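We modelled the chain as a single entity of 290 amino acids. Its sequence is:
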Amino acid sequence: DVDPKAIKGLRNDLERLLGKRDSWEPALLRELFGILWNGARRRRRSADHERLWFSLAGYCLRPGFGYPLDEWRVGQLWTLYQPGPHYPQEAQSWAEWWTLWRRVAGGLDAAAQARISTDLLKALRPLTGKAAKEPAGIDDMARLAAVLERLPAAQKTELGAMLLARLNRKGASPQLWWAVGRLGTRIPAYGSAHDVVPVATATIWLERVLDLDWKAVLPAAFAATLLARMSGDRERDVDDKMRARVIQRLRIAKASASWLRMVETVVALDEVDAGRVFGETLPPGLRLVD
């Protein structure tokens, strides 16, 4: 018999007690996750309970690795994947569900990522026919697919082709371009360099991004940066002419100086760009050691 207003206001209540969420350090976040996990069964009290539980649990465990016992925590969380949301009729529950798995994806092993990928390949396939009904949370599913770095290159290529097919359709979300760039990135954030998509595939995707109006499609510049990012490995890097084209477009677009450096030379991500790669800011002070 909890007041629905108390549930919806929980996030704000926590911030009043603990400070702004983006200042919560890993030790606090993981302690909060422990409390949430202990009450995991009670998320089913209402759709609001479930939605907020997914949101807070993912936020507190992001990016799924980098802190002691994260492997165990993510393993516990993974037991919820098979049952799925308790309120599947709620679109917002699905959005938070997919966001939860995106936030902790770096802590999922190859088998778990492959399981998610199989489900996403079915859901993201463009439907045909006037009666076809799209599943809820297409953008959230695409963003999750984009960060599954432990998938083999062939599966990433298939996901990317599916997203590009969607982008051929009128009204497709521009955020899908971020997902294409992220799938084709030359330097993984936590996965193996052996699993990046082939350079020929990345070049084809990059041509599509270069054909866009970057003023109208805001994610295009960062997508191009990821696809053309210099790794120092000739087997992974697009050719010099292609990188020169990207550099020119980035300059015309007055893109971030850090993006230019990423294409011009081999550099580590700064804190801001690491957040863009993972889809949101990372916990302050967390070292990304997988």
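As a brief sanity check on the tokenised model: The two ends are 42 Å apart (CA to CA). The mean pLDDT is 93.
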